[in-house]
Design goal:
single chain, alpha/beta, seven-stranded mixed sheet, four-stranded mixed sheet, 13 strands, globular
Length: 531
Amino acid sequence: MFTHLHVHSEYSLLDGMCRIPRLMSRAKELGMDSLAITDHGVMFGAIEFYLAAKEAGIKPIIGCEVYVAQDSRLSRDAGDKKNHHLILLAKNQKGYRNLIQLTTKAHLEGFYYKPRVDKELLQEYHQGLIALSGCIGGEIPGLVLGGHLDEAKQVALWYKKTFGDFYLEIQKHPIPELEQINQALIAISSELDIPLVATSDVHYVNREDASAHDLLLCIGTNSSIYDDKRMKMAGDFLYLKSPQEMAELYQDIPQAIENTERIAQMCNLKLEFGRFHLPEIELPGDKTADDFLAELCREGLQEYYPNPTSEIKERLDYELEVIKQTQFADYFLVVWDIISFAKKQNILFGVRGSAAASLVLHCLGITEIDPITYKLVFERFLNVERKEMPDVDLDFEDERRDEVISYVSQKYGQDHVAQIITFGTLGARAALRDVGRALAMSYGDVDRVARLVPWRPGVTLARALEENSELGNIYREDATIRNLVDSARRVEGIARHASTHAAGVVISKEPLTNQVPLQRASRAKYKRESS
């Protein structure tokens, strides 16, 4: 069975257009039993893809199309804007963690227009990874096109020696340069005993999505479909082809198809979910976290309840026992530590949600509401039967939130703390305005239509057409407006850009790169690549 090993989801921002649920649905419809994700320089969609694939009964292959610097990732000269593409696929947990290291270092150390790794990093983090030579933008194809065949062979041998599992990637698209590249790769494969593999460089799910993908590229490059010099694909062939289509395309080199199955069989990544990696504060003496938490609570009990009743004492003992059984004492102590800092620095804070039901949090001085007086039910916040993370929603004053984040980073280590990434999507109005620019429509015409879309969260163009009769009328009567709206609906909801979550912060017991990739954030130190 053929497996697609070069696939770009919508997280190849404004380049890939495969929405993961739709991608999985189509893959299942085509009878595929495995599928890879290889977004440009990022792992934004890795977990979503993994879970969706598992649910669909498809083996997930987690990978990345990395950018390889021509020389050092640390170089920032004018010529360093150019880089090479390389596909990396994780065979196992070791490979997955190495992929995390590579994408993180590409962003934190090698970013120069693109997040770049170099051969030094590839040598250091090669274990557990399979490498494919990449598309027309790969190093070996580039050398072939430049007439440097001997150098191309030397580079191929370097990758073979470094990764062991290295394949020369053959793509059969109607692009003139590919014929020259493919013939050379087949010859190199035979001479150097490096296997071939067939890929299709998937950017959208169905063939008919090509025109919408073209608009997406225009949005990403701030150009219009009438700009002859803009970046565009050479045709409508970058869709998720069926195994039958791929077999027909590669009937002259069937081993390239067979090797996709061989690679899929080698990739057996299993990710673990549901295990906590809670940070820990430094404990006094030889106390355990549960002991120290209980001590703090009994001190607070005297402050908030000078003459506690037996009911209050029993309630506190009960809550502490539940926390002990669920093993969340460290979590409570970290929250206490953060709030203690905020109080000392006179930083205003508030606590929302079911946390108000906890007597422990009240005794720690985290919540002001008395859960006994107001008969609040602790089990709504935490109970033994449903072992889920307790949720203490903390709000800090906007102007001083960075002080809290800075304290947490210093306390627990910068490599243990990161803000969360978030993705802006093409909402109804944004889709109209972006697509209008891509279609080279006048600002006034697009603005007139966009203003008819109700201004509220979650509204879609389909809903707007139903609710606003004026919009519905011009949609039916004006072919240009109808094309604008229909085109916008095709890209509506797609991820447009990455930014930093306003308040979400992750703190881990271990360095975060043991679990998730990191990248630079616009404001904060780092942000993690999953949401």
